[in-house]
Amino acid sequence: MKKITLISIAMLLSLYCSAQSRPTFQKSNGPGQINKNVSTQPIQKTTNTSLPAKGKLTLRSNGFIKMKLRLPFAAKEMEYMVRKVGHYYILNDDIIVGNDFPKTRSYSIDNGIFTNYKWDNAEIPVVIDKSIFENNMQNMVVGALNEMNTQLELRIVARTTQEDYVRIEFSSTILGSGESPVGRQGGEQPLFLAKSATKATVWHELLHAAGIWHEQSRDDRDKFIQINEANLTDGAEHNFQYESGNNQGDYDFCSIMHYSANAFSKNGQPTIECKSNNTTAPCPTCMGQRTGFSAQDIKGLDQFYNEVSRFASHYKFILPQASWRFCNKCSGMFFDGYMDKGSCPEKGQHQAAGYNFQLPHDIAGTATSQTSWRYCSKCYLLFYSGYTNKGTCNQGGAHIAAGYNFVLPHDVAGKPSTQSSWRYCNKCYVMFYDGYAKKGLCAAGGAHTSAGYNFVLSYN
Ligand SMILES: [Zn+2]
Ligand SMILES: [Zn+2]
Ligand SMILES: [Zn+2]
Ligand SMILES: [Zn+2]
What we know:
Collagenase (Catalytic Domain), 460 residues, mainly beta
């Protein structure tokens, strides 16, 4: 496994708090925005890999571009041959090293030691884009994340409001099965999967996102392998450029980060041949394997992310529940996942507007989150179930808690892909949007009255 030794960075401590506090009064962080038509919401792309200055690009006839880059963990700027695919610049077939998007937040060269390319707390927050669901890949992806969580000292967690995170997206235009930048980039960063992606693709690309480079691009690889250019398709010699960072551990032919013997072959003959003591040797059969992590992959990653105790607790990646919407009649948050949307206090059915919110559930609350938010099986609204009194339901009687125990983050500023100004009404106990003058009709009479925390919800 290849990587650089880094100075340990100060840990952010997750302060877990089991005590459930009553919602308390708190000033709003200011208005959020409701987009009236969810289908036209732009997905903000804020990948901030450093781009070369203009004039550093030279287009070659085979589609490769010469580019000067200082790669994550590299000591200095170097020239590389990259390909432009969509809005992204791609090194060695699957590594995103730049993009066309404006820079808003970046962990690029700022302090010379690049500690920020490592993820805090050994946790990579992940959002699963709706394009993954549209291509029916969510079970494969979630399965891959959970298998990874049981094997590595690195946790893949469902993003709540973290500022830096990976969005796992489907793409029909990438070169291979997957694509990712190396290391934490700052803000949202993509991890693209093609239809051909398997669990191993998810693992390989997430190790890139974690900060790991390719094994066959180590700077000492010439002692162990020989690239046979005669068998390579045109231009594929550029897929074996040396990458940045230091080497840690022995050369690992069996790494999930190693390309296969026939990678980019034009004739079915080997493109990677193996050496031992500078003479040709048969390649281990494990080379290019995509069945799982090699022993050395696990050891190397454990050393890289040594902040948590291995196997002390397996984090289970739970898909947040989507389909929570704002009703533009009653301003309440209701579950939009059924045909029947429930009765609106303002008459008729709830009417979905704005973002599709994703609510985390079945996880422990923290000092800045609150559990005991439930869905009412009568009115479909989200209400606070932490008191004996469940509030007045617009269907008569009190709310009836059903489904997941949702955990809602509060007391944090709104970040990209989140919306604040969600408040609890202390008369009907329902969660409603407090960002407009009109707060909607309360089932207990009059308009909703905002109380408690200013909740900040993630949306897709
Ligand atoms: Zn790769
Ligand atoms: Zn409504
Ligand atoms: Zn109800
Ligand atoms: Zn109310």
